[in-house]
Design brief:
The structure is a homodimer of 453-residue chains. With 453 residues, the first copy, chain A, is of the alpha+beta class. Chain A contains 14 helices and 18 strands. In chain A, helix 3 packs parallel to helix 4, helix 4 packs across helix 14 and helix 12 crosses helix 14.
């Protein structure tokens, strides 16, 4: 492994060129106009894997967007690492807030700016390059399988069935994933917990057409007024979610563990400054890291209804809509929560409106033990590259498929993430620092070294 | 006046052709892209008035869109009627709900379908044709002035100053307006009260960019969640508005007057069926007609924020917006209410967000006495054409300029409206029944007859 750093340095421009080729494919999984782009991204991953040294790679069908599977089997009796990543990205709206084209990557201030630069094209691509190095230098001492899916950003609806149907193909000892972050460039961390997710769209219908707000206002329920009241009722003055039974399966984290969590570096002033808010807000009795790490949350992700154009239109609208999500903690079941919300929301709505609740997607939370060999190999790899033992942290994000992997394939996932909070994933001007990209390749390569010692 | 009906019948197609020419001008006053259309509408009205028999008509400038003034002065010592109407229309969104082009009028089931068919091109145009009949047959026994403005749908921001500056030009004895409705085709009514209006846009800013709802959700205030809470707090469980001081100037209507109002025909089953709602909703202790006629109301006319596209995007948005209106009753001052709302809304907002409240427009309420000669002439005119004495009613709508006319010009307005509830004004598929259009021309002509007897 002596020439690893040199190899990365020598191939720097080629690695970026190859990544940019992938990024340029606008693979937005949630928008039907990008259906063909999803297939193109899968084909591109096939090329990437074969070029990196896979014995076999193919685009495989699912009920939804296709995925790419690849492998290099050295010896079936050796351990097998299954690398998981996703080729799909979030929508780019609001487009006008991007400083450059989201699908034409540019390097500025030593960062790659593009949709998917971090999440997850940039991070998944590091695995292909670590694998390439190991294969080229005959240093690979285990089998490697790659599973690159195209529906992560819409909750991986087809992948569980694919896993059920392909258990033999996906047989492995551990799953390796880079789709999370670390605390800071100088504070490496490994995510050991993920929140689950339940996500709905609600539609409130008042009168059958938009009415004149003067002639009808005050006598006919306004669906926006009603929607606001319903949303407002979903959380109480302590920032707790009011859906009956919502917290039933939440396991309270012990005072001891909370004390450990409190040691993780956190600067409230910097945190507030970075997002420009005067005050933080959340569930009473919990710190910011606890609020995102070990407690559920309730967020309206979008809302619309009535007149939203220029000027004033005095209308009592017919419809109002919202996209509503909750983040769940391990042991909460997203399917149970989906039903609890729907029933509660419909029950508390007044008879003066009609309510339709559609569950859009969901996923379970996840916890990774820190005493398994794969976790410890990851720990050593970070220490080798970053000079510090990584901190185990609970992330507020969700990767619904991670808990599905555990359930279906019986495998734990090691979440070796290299994203930073400033990467603006899911937002305009998503970016990924070059240093994290190249350090990531190096760290992943070391993971294989320690894991197969 | 014996040949009045015949004259209308003989000129039926020409009247419609002329009206349609006016309707085809997309004079949406609130949208800057229609600025030139506003001027074209004003030029069109100049043509209409000169063709109908005005001695003089001209397009006059205001601080905003131009207006059209026209007159026929027979003898300065005779009484003068000032006809007021507006050439501007509401926006047409949501366009996809229109069955035909909003600016290409069609006749279907004996109704004219188009934006402005009723409000206010159709109704205002009736006055031009009544005037034409009287001039052509030498039956006009008073002076007539026309004032057609282009900013009614945005709250007539420039007209008060125009009136202040042109008091002599607009000198009259009474104002005649057709911009309201009647109860039903067989139940004529005259509007004797109008609600006032105050209208705001609010902007809630949370973090400086859209955030990942997993990584930040629960720890950072979500501007949509906050906006919903703020809107929800604006009304209480009794349907009353909670802004401190909001009801201070509301005059309670006497039990006697309420008993009179209760005699107006109202069929709750039909009313609910027409707009397809299972239950009506409003301030406790008041009937539907009272809720829209003598009580203020609070309506969110539009709301937007976050992700509103296809599928699920897990985002904690940076911004949320709403367009909020209140209808006011006579004696409430819209300027005072505008300040009360703004102060209250800003005060109750949490420090975790920034709030911006912009007042978009407003207008005072209005009451017309039923014992003045002009009202009585109108009453006789309706009785002549519809066969029944019209019912005096309080409308829930607002025509902000009507109270301004009273204040600046010292004139009462007679609200001779011919619209029907089914006309869908401000909504997709606005329409105006041909019968109301032609009966309106006839009724207005009889008004002049009785007023100058």
């Amino acid at each position: 492994m002596q020439n690893l750093k040199q190899y990365i340095a020598d191939n720097r421009q080629r690695f970026l060129d190859e990544l940019f080729e992938l990024i340029r494919i606008p693979s937005v999984s949630s928008q039907s106009k990008h259906k063909d782009d999803m297939r193109q991204a899968a084909e591109q991953w096939k090329k990437i894997l074969l070029a990196a040294g896979a014995d076999r790679a193919e685009v495989m069908e699912t009920a939804g967007h296709p995925l790419t599977y690849g492998e290099k089997i050295i010896d079936p009796s050796l351990p097998t690492v299954l690398v998981y990543g996703h080729m799909d990205v979030m929508p780019v709206d609001p487009l006008n807030l991007w400083h450059t084209d989201p699908f034409e990557p540019v390097i500025k201030d030593d960062k790659i700016y593009a949709r998917g630069a971090d999440d997850n094209k940039g991070q998944a691509f590091m695995h292909a390059k670590a694998f390439e190095y190991l294969v080229k230098h005959n240093l690979l001492k285990c089998n490697v399988k790659f599973l690159m899916e195209g529906e992560e950003e819409i909750g991986s609806p087809s992948l569980p069935a694919f896993c059920e149907a392909n258990k033999d193909l996906l047989k492995a000892d551990v799953i390796l994933v880079s789709d999370t972050g670390m605390i800071a460039p100088d504070i490496p961390s490994i995510t050991t917990g993920l929140r689950g997710l339940a996500y709905w769209e609600v539609e409130i219908t008042g009168p059958n057409r938009d009415l004149h707000s003067g002639l009808f206002g005050g006598a006919v329920a306004n669906p926006i007024n009603v929607l606001a009241k319903l949303i407002a009722q979903m959380t109480d003055e302590n920032g707790q979610i009011t859906i009956p039974g919502f917290y039933s399966d939440v396991i309270e984290v012990s005072a001891e563990e909370r004390a450990m969590m409190a040691k993780a570096p956190f600067n409230e002033t910097d945190y507030k400054k970075a997002i420009d808010v005067a005050e933080l807000s959340g569930e009473k009795g919990y710190s910011t890291n606890e609020r995102t790490g070990i407690r559920p949350s309730f967020d309206v992700c979008g809302i619309w209804g009535g007149y939203t154009g220029e000027g004033a239109k005095t209308v009592l609208p017919s419809k109002a809509y919202a996209k509503i999500s909750t983040r769940l903690v391990p042991n909460q079941d997203h399917e149970k929560i989906a039903i609890l919300f729907k029933e509660h929301f419909e029950r508390i709505a007044p008879n003066s409106v009609k309510v339709k609740v559609t569950t859009l997607h969901g996923g379970q939370g996840y916890v990774c033990p820190i005493d398994i060999p794969a976790y410890q190999a990851a720990e050593r790899a970070y220490e080798k590259v970053y000079g510090k033992v990584p901190v185990p942290v609970r992330s507020g994000g969700s990767i619904p498929i991670i808990s599905a992997f555990e359930e279906i394939l019986g495998l734990k996932s090691i979440l070796m993430g290299f994203g930073l909070e400033s990467d603006a994933i899911h937002s305009p001007n998503e970016n990924y620092p070059l240093q994290q990209f190249f350090n990531g390749i190096e760290t992943i390569t070391w993971f294989y070294n320690y894991y197969t010692e």
